[in-house]
Amino acid sequence: MDIRNFYGKKKKSRKKKIKFIDLFCGIGSFHYSFKKLGWKCVMASDICEPARETYKHNHKLEPRGDICDIEPSKLKSYDILTAGFPCQPFSNAGFKKGFEDEKDGRGTMFSQVMRFVKENKPRIVILENVAGLLTHDDGKSFERIKKEIGDEGYKINYKVLKCSDYGIPQMRKRLFIVGMKDVDDNKFKDFFNLAEYEKKVTLAEYLGKNFVKDTAYTIRCGGRRSAINNKHNWDGYWIKDNEKEIEYRLTIEDALKLQGFENYELQGSKTANWKMLGNTIPTIFTEIIGKQILKML
User: Fold this and answer.
1) Of 177, 164, 200, nearest in space to 282 by CA
2) Number of CB atoms found within 10 A of residue 248's CB
3) Fewer beta carbons under 10 A from the terminal one: N or C of the chain?
4) Quick check: 192 and 159 in contact, CB under 8 A?
5) Exactly one of 25, 87, 163, 221 is catalytic; which is it?
6) Contact yes or no for 35/94 (Cβ under 8 A)
7) How far apart are CA 32 and CA 26, in angstroms?
């Protein structure tokens, strides 16, 4: 795909809006950040009904359901594919079966992503997963992913990012894999040189309460309301109140902010809300990825 599909001969004479599809879209982290850049989502997909309702409510676009039921050949052209494909098969919190995981077909979801890559040939592919994917099965799972993307003509770069390095005081880490075609090697090798975005903010500064802990635990699906000293606890914190320390539990609004969402309305039950928040990608990551892509064009 020629760069002129993004811009005219000069970058100032943009010919058309960048288009992207949002696979395993969840509540819409990529969409949340990319629309700030003026990019247009032309298709989203997620199997979770409350996530689709939330996505539609906030982005005015109704995601399709099961990715397995979508035919890539019927999609109009787009420039960027994003996919936060299921992480449980590669996560320390799961059974780490990887591509052999047959439960709900989760281990085969990368293959579903590749159906779109092979058929639609977008210029840019952005994948998100847990950091454990790098070492799963002695690195074989990650090598398979790199090979399959590379075989389609993409240059590949990747890095594990941590929220607390970039202004959101949460210990959440995520692996990002970026594949690009028609990109200058010297520019692309610096894709994850992110020093300009680095920023340290304490939990007290971020949420406006006198937290004892400087950085929040990783927001996750399970373990909510566990005892504050339990290893499964992630939502219970001590707050200083004069000479005392009192227990505080994160609210949904707190968790939304710690995942980087502002003025965002979740749909569905409270249980579903917490699950969606635990599964989402912090928007600081998708915002940085988008800004770095602009530097490549």
Assistant:
1) 164
2) 19
3) N
4) yes
5) 87
6) no
7) 11
CA torsion sign for 218, 223, 225, 229 is negative
Q: Whose CA is closest to 207, among 216, 198, 199?
A: 216
Mean pLDDT of 237-259: 96
Q: Specify the pLDDT at position 90.
A: 53
pLDDT tens digits, one per residue of 74-98: 999 999 999 999 865 554 444 445 4
Which string of DSSP letters, residue by residue, matches 21-75? EEET-TTTHHHHHHGGGT-EEEEEE-S-HHHHHHHHHHHS---BS-GGG--GGGS
Angle at the Cα of 149 from the Cα atoms of 148 and 151, rounded to 5 degrees: 65
Is 68 considered catalytic here?
Answer: no
Question: What's the burial of 258, exposed, middle or buried (CB within 10 Å: 0-12/13-18/19+)?
Answer: buried
Nearest-angstrom CA–CA distance, 188 and 112: 26
**Calpha distance 206→280 (Å, rounded):** 19
Distance of alpha carbon 255 from alpha carbon 218, whole angstroms: 10
The whole-angstrom separation of Cα 146 and Cα 207 is 39
